[in-house]
Every structure is written in C-alpha cells, then in structure tokens.
Amino acid sequence: MRFAEPAILWALLAVPLLALLVVYAGLRRRRALAAFAGSEAHVARFRGEVSANRRAAKAIAVLVAVTAAIVAAARPQWGQGTETITRKGIDLAIVLDTSKSMAAADVAPSRLARGVRAASSLLDRMEGDRIALVTFAGKSAIACPLTLDHEAVRLFLDAVDVEAVSVPGTALAAAIDEGVRALGPASTEGTLAKGRALIVISDGEDHEGGVDGAILAAKRAGVVVYGIGCGTDQGAPIPQGESGAYKKDAEGKLVTTRLDERSLRSLAGETGGKYYRATGAEGEVEEIAKALAAMDASGSKTVLKTRWVERFQIPLAVALFALILETLISDRRKLP
Fold first, then answer.
1. Is residue 115's pLDDT more than 70?
2. I need a labelling partner for 237 at 20 to 30 A (CA). Which of 16, 39, 205, 284 fits?
3. Are residues 148 and 214 both part of a single domain?
4. Number of domain units in the chain
5. Of 7, 170, 26, which Cα lies nearest the Cα of 98?
6. What domain range includes position 39?
C-alpha cells in the first residue's frame, strides 16, 4: 500500500485537536446552560432532555468523517496492474548549436537567440509528440531526454547559452549521432515504429568533419533531418565574453564567422528533410511544423508494467457514511 499524496496525511495531526475542541465545546455548553438555568434543579431538567451518549456518538461520527476524508485526499493505492497506452505523435530531437560562433549578432539579437526562439515556437506547434533537446559545440550532450512534457524542454531551452557545452569547437556529425541516440531505438518491445525526426539549428560551421557518416547513421535509423541556418552570408565577428571584445586570429585580425549552409543542406536533402534559413517572421518554423505533422504518426503502444490502483473511494465512502449517520442521530433522549 502507498499514498500518491502522502504530505496530506500530516493533516491527521489536526484530528486530536478537533477532538479536544469538541470536548471543550461541550464544557462551554454545560457552563452556559448552568448560567441560563439559574439553579441546579433546572439544569438537571434540561439535561434530562438530551442524551449524552447520542451527542458523543455524533461527535465520534464527525471525527471519523474528517479522518476518512483526509485519508481519501491522500489517495491510498494498492494492487498493481498493467495498462496499454496508445499515443499518436512522433519523436523529435532538437539539436541546437551552442558554439562560440552562435553568439555572433549578424541576425538580431544573436544567432543563438534566434535559434532558441525558433525552437520555442516549434514547441508551441507540437502536440502529443515526444521531444528531446541536444546541445553541441566541440562535444554534444543530451540536455533533456525524450519527453512529452514540453514545458520541461522549454526550461532547458531557455537556460542554454554559448557556455552550455564547455568543449570549444563545432562537431556537427557527433551532434547528429547524439540526436539519433536521444530518439532511442526505432523499434523496441511493446513499441511500434513511428515518425522520427531531428531539427538541427546551427550556423553550419563544422570543425570535425564526418557529416557523410552521420547522414548514413540517420538514414539507417529512419530519422528525417530538418535544418535551420542561423546567420548571414556577410557574417559578423565573434564576441568574447561580456567585455565587448571580439575574437582575433594570431595576426590580431578580427575573426569573422559566416553562415555555412552546405552541411545543413546536405543533411536535410539526403535524409528526406528540408533546409531553411532562420527568419524573423519564423515562416520556416511553420513549414517544418506542417512537414512533421504529415509524418507517420500511426501510434506508439507502451505497456506500463507498474500501475497502482486508486483506492480513495473506500475512505471517501466511509466519510460520507459517517456524515449521513451524524445527521440521522438525534441528541434528544427517547421518551419512555
């Protein structure tokens, strides 16, 4: 046996206090009666009309009702069963570039901010889909595993910055592999195959290579890749921290980072997806959302091996019965 809301059981500590309050109220009632009657003879006559045992029974019924109601609110559960859940939707991993070059401001307010806003807008358009978040620079990491809780994904998304992955550089191929891993196996026991996709949000810079191998891995896993490019062809210098300085090469010249669309176009085209450039109007987000909605979402069936059975109905019935009983009991003494 367990309780789904065990914290509510602390309210049971108030039951003894309620019992003391009932006793105190009875004493106050006796004193008030004595003051009203004016003499002990009159007090005895009034008390003879009321049954002390019936009043005690009514008080006990109220205390039982309160106790049972608190237990019911704590949601007691016992017994286990299995349940099959059918979900319509796809599995999607948002792969977000957090390398230093994403701090460039050739698109306002910055490439990373534009990418985060695109991902957030996409979340608003996804319903019933499981979503994961992967961040990458020189190394990739699963910031949020696959989940139906889109608000949890949004919390992690709002917290990303160019320091989200501490290893410098841009390893695009490794990020694609990590995104595929975040989606999990294409088919597992108790789970049917479903639509699977990656959204890669990046400026396209790649310092490690190996994109062709990542494309093959995505195709083998049945994953469609969509790309969103952040940046411009003209490019911009790379900010260095909050000092206002910019990154320079060994000769002291400013390093300019430019949008490189080649890898993103290749990833999207080879896997059946499509590449878009990030815009302020976010039309690309709407197009990707429509494409994802058209993917195979035939259903995913997952067997839950542990499901506790709710039993709050039992103490709730006890509470209702005690309240009804309290109203039916009269505190008047039966006449002979």
1. yes
2. 284
3. yes
4. 2
5. 170
6. 2-75+312-328
Is the pLDDT higher at 215 or at 332?
Answer: 215
The number of helix segments (H) and strand segments (E) in the chain equals 10, 13
Note whether 176 and 198 are within 8 A (CB).
Answer: yes
CA–CA separation, 263 vs 236, rounded Å? Answer: 20
Model confidence pLDDT, tens digit, residues 164-211: 666 677 789 999 999 999 998 865 444 444 689 999 999 988 877 888
Are 101 and 241 in a shared domain? yes
Distance CA 258, CA 234 (A): 6
Q: Clarify whether residues 39 and 104 are in a common domain.
A: no
Q: Do residues 213 and 259 share a domain? A: yes
Residues in the chain: 336
**DSSP per-residue string spanning 108-168:** SS-HHHHHHHHHHHHHHH--S-EEEEEEESSSEEEEEEEES-HHHHHHHHHH--TTSS-S-
Tell me the pLDDT tens digit for each residue of 33-79.
Answer: 666 666 555 555 555 566 777 888 888 999 999 999 999 999 998 88
CB-based contact 102:132 (threshold 8 Å)? no
Give 299-308 pLDDT, tens digit per residue.
555 545 567 7
Same domain? For 180 and 321 the reply is no
- 112 and 63 in a single domain? The answer is no
